[in-house]
Sequence to fold (356 residues):
Amino acid sequence: MSTARSLHDLSFPELEEELAQSGVKKVHARLLWRALHYEASRFRENLDGFPPPLARWLNQYLGDGRAFFLDQPEQVAESRSSDGLTRKYLLRLRDGRTIETVLMGYDRRFTACVSTQVGCAMGCVFCATGQMGFTRHLRPGEIIAQVLHVQRILRAEYGKNLRNLVLMGMGEPLHNYDAVMKALSTIADVRGPSLAQDRITISTVGLVPAILRLAEEKSPYNLAISLHGATEEQRRSLIPISKKWPIESLIDACRTYEQALGKRIFIEWTLIAGKNDSPEVAGQLASLLQGINVHINLIPLNPTDAYEGTASAHQAGLVFQRILRGAGYPVTFRQRRGIDVAAGCGQLRSTKTTVP
Ligand code: SAH
Ligand code: SF4
Fold:
C-alpha cells in the first residue's frame, strides 16, 4: 500500500518540519504554503518562481510514486439551479469516491458548503447521504481542496473571494473531529485561504461528547445543531443516532457550549409535513430551548427517493415561525433555492450514481 501523503494534509509547522528534515530552510515553507493554499490552481506555474532548494525538494518528493501528492479532486459533474445562484459540484477523490461541494451566491456574497465524509454513519431517514451509509472519513486535505476548488471558480468568474463556509455537505463533521479541526485551522489561516473564523459554521446532528469538546477547546467557529424534533420520540423517528444521546443531554451540551463560549447557537429545523411542523411541536420547541441563545433556521424538506415524507405546506411553516417568534426567538426561513439542482446534501451524488 502506498504511504504517500498529501501536502494539503500538513499544518504549517508540519510543513516547516518536513522541509527542515531534508535540509530546506524553514523560511521557504511560507512560499510553499501560499502556493498550496492560496493559488493552488497555479501551483505548477509557480514552481518556476521557487528558490532552487524548494524547487529541488518538490522535484524530489512530489509526484507519482513519491512521498507527497496534492489534493486536487477532479470535477466530474456540475449542476446549476435555474436562478443560477446555487451550483453544485461532484468531485472525484484519488480513490475514485465522489463527494459534493456546493457554492451559493446571494447579493454577490458567496458561501461554500463542503463535505466532511464520504457518506454518513448517522442514518437520518430523510437525508440522501444518510441513505447511502458510511464509506470513509475525509482527510483534512480533501476538505481544504473543496474550498480551494470553489475559491478558484469564484476568482476566475467574479474576481471575488469566498466569504462564508458551512460544513453542511455530505457527512457528520463531528464524527471526523480531528480532520475537520485541522482543515479549518488551515482554511482560516491568514497566510492561506484566510476565511474569517466567525464566518465558518460547523453543523452537527448532535454528537454530545464532541459538542462538549468544542466548548472545552473554545472553538472559534459557529455551531449549528440539526435538531428536527422537540421530543425524544420525534427525534428518534428521524435521527436513529439520537438514541445514543437523549435530547436532554443534547440540550444540556448546548447550554454548556453557549455558556463557555458566549455564542449564539444555530438550530436547524427541517420542516416535514405532518411530522414536525404542527403548532403543538412549535410550542414544544419553544419550551425546550428556553434560556438558550439560539437562532432558528427553518428549512423545507427536500424530498429524497428513499423517504416518503414531504415538505410542509408554506402556510404551516409560517404558523410555525410565528409561534417561535412570539416566544421571542429569532427565526429565519431558509428557502432551499437550489431545490431544482437536488441541493439537499448527497442528492447530486445519488442521482449520478444511479445513472448507469
Ligand atoms: N451531518 C451534519 C451536516 C450535514 S447535513 C448535520 O446533520 O447537521 C446539513 C443539513 O442538511 C442538516 O441540517 C440536515 O438535517 C439537512 N438535510 C439533510 N437532508 C435534507 C433534506 N432532504 N431536506 C432538507 N434538509 C436536509
Ligand atoms: Fe449525516 Fe447530517 Fe445526513 Fe444526518 S443529516 S445522515 S448527520 S449528513
